[in-house]
């Protein structure tokens, strides 16, 4: 993939955009659901990466319930490894039937291993689409 540009945007400028994929995380922090509750348009595919660890700690049970209620597709992964995240991305993006994808990723509650895997995945993978807009968000 060739990087065209990087810019910092205000959330309001993209909150009404229709995303092809929205990726969030269900962890033990209450802020995990923040972005999912503020996206104004329903993305075509809603994905939540859920930690295998700490399933019953903090806000995790409420977060899981909320994402199930919002009809997110769950992908369980170990926080200390990025391989399962890459597998999930391959499954999600290999199904893409569009020439131009828009993807929003909330990395607020991810481990460093997960967002490093995501960045490496997009930098090194040869996509079946011509253009991808990736919006990284943090709460």
Structure report:
It is a single chain. The protein is α/β, with parallel strands linked by helices and 139 residues long. It has helices at residues 60-69, 83-94, 112-124, and strands at residues 21-26, 45-51, 73-77, 100-106, 131-137. The chain has a five-stranded parallel beta sheet with strand order 3-2-1-4-5. β4 (100-106), α3 and β5 form a beta-alpha-beta unit. It is globular and about 40 Å long. The model has no long low-confidence stretch (mean pLDDT 87).
Provide the fold topology.
Elements: E1 21-26, E2 45-51, H1 60-69, E3 73-77, H2 83-94, E4 100-106, H3 112-124, E5 131-137
Parallel strand pairs: 1-2, 1-4, 2-3, 4-5
Short description:
The chain is α/β, with parallel strands linked by helices. The protein is built from 3 helices and 5 strands. Helix 2 crosses helix 3.
> Which structural class do you get from the secondary structure elements?
alpha/beta
User: How are the strands ordered across the major sheet?
Assistant: 3-2-1-4-5
What is the chain-wise order of helices and strands? EEHEHEHE
Main β sheet profile: 5 strands, parallel
* Beta strand %: 15-25%
Distance between the termini: 27 Å
Radius of gyration: 14 Å
Mean pLDDT: 87
Q: Supply the number of helical segments.
A: 3
Binned, the helix content reads 25-40%
Query: What characteristic shape results from the CA principal axes?
Result: globular
* Count of distinct strands: 5
Uncertain stretches of 5 or more adjacent residues: none
